[in-house]
Design brief:
The protein has 246 residues and is α/β, with parallel strands linked by helices. It is 39% helix and 16% strand. It is built from seven helices and seven strands, in the order E-H-E-H-E-E-H-E-H-E-H-H-H-E. Strands 3-2-1-4-5-6-7 form a seven-stranded parallel sheet, with helices on both faces. The termini are far apart. Bound molecules: NADP nicotinamide-adenine-dinucleotide phosphate (NAP). NADP nicotinamide-adenine-dinucleotide phosphate binds at residues 14-15, 17-21, 39-41, 62-65, 85-88, 108, 136, 138, 181, 183-184, 186-189.
């Protein structure tokens, strides 16, 4: 078995019905993990694709608009890997940004991420089991963006939390890391891709010369979930085609 294998591991991925979460669920399953695909709606398509590829998966409904929704999910279940992927974005000029759009994004992207990690880690720490947490951050964990006040604030928070949780749990064999995707073709970027000028402007700035695919993120998630990354703690790994290097 290689250090990149997830054979015998149990993983939970939030927001696994589509996009990056779906690709990560498929990637973890292909590496040998049993994957719980959680979503606020059905993950049937993800389950079907994992089964077709010969992997093992199950479904769990979890609406993280309630940031405490995952509190009872981990007890006694033997989870080794948590992928905090679920996220939303709201776009508006800062001077018109509403409290509702602030709270909705903060609740799913930051508060739920922390309290889900807390519930998962409590279980691993109590049993003295090694475990891996991978948070999905963003290039907007480093840059400001435009018209995305709550998203940028939340994603900067994800980068900070990743480091503080790593500081607290690294010595107890719980790895906490994050992935910062660049511009990936998913529902999250539908509005950007629907605007040809904006699409091209972004493309022109990506050193790799292409937008990212969800699978680009999945490979990094497998690494950060596997024994191969046992000495990696508190890092935010940019998978962005070179966007932030520019
Ligand atoms: P996406 O296709 O919109 O997927 C987001 C996922 O989160 C979906 O499964 C969505 O479920 C789920 N979700 C939203 N609200 C939820 C809730 N209340 N409870 C449970 N699940 C919820 O976009 P994506 O690009 O794959 O996004 C995945 C992660 O990557 C997000 O954290 C996003 O911020 C991050 N990211 C994306 C990009 C990019 O370029 N695409 C760049 C940087 C970071 P529904 O399908 O029901 O909405």
């Amino acid at each position: 078995m290689t250090r990149f294998s997830l054979e015998g591991r149990r993983a939970l991925v939030t927001g696994a019905n589509t996009g990056i979460g779906q690709a990560i669920a498929l990637g973890l399953a292909a590496a040998g993990a049993r994957v719980t695909c959680s979503g606020r709606r059905s993950c049937a398509e993800t389950l079907e694709r994992i089964a077709r590829a010969g992997g093992a998966a199950q479904e769990l409904t979890l609406d993280l608009a309630d940031p405490m929704a995952a509190q009872d999910v981990f007890a006694g279940e033997g989870y080794d890997i948590l992928i905090n992927n679920a996220g939303i974005i709201r776009r508006a000029p800062a001077e018109e940004f509403t409290e509702a759009d602030w709270d909705a994004v903060m609740d799913v992207n930051l508060k739920a991420l922390f309290f889900t990690a807390r519930a998962f880690a409590r279980e691993a720490l109590a049993q003295d089991r090694p475990a891996k947490i991978v948070n999905i951050a963003s290039v907007l964990s480093f840059q400001g963006g435009v018209r995305v006040a709550s998203y940028t604030a939340a994603k900067h928070g994800v980068a900070g939390l990743t480091k503080t949780l790593a500081n607290e749990w690294a010595a107890r064999r719980v790895n906490v890391n994050a992935i910062a995707p660049g511009y990936i073709e998913t529902n999250n970027t539908e509005a950007l891709r629907a605007d040809p000028a904006r699409f091209q402007a972004i493309l022109d700035r990506i050193p790799a010369g292409r937008w990212g695919q969800p699978e680009d993120i999945a490979d990094a998630a497998v690494f950060l979930s596997a024994p191969a990354s046992d000495y990696v703690h508190g890092t935010v790994l940019c998978v962005d085609g070179g966007w932030l290097a520019r």
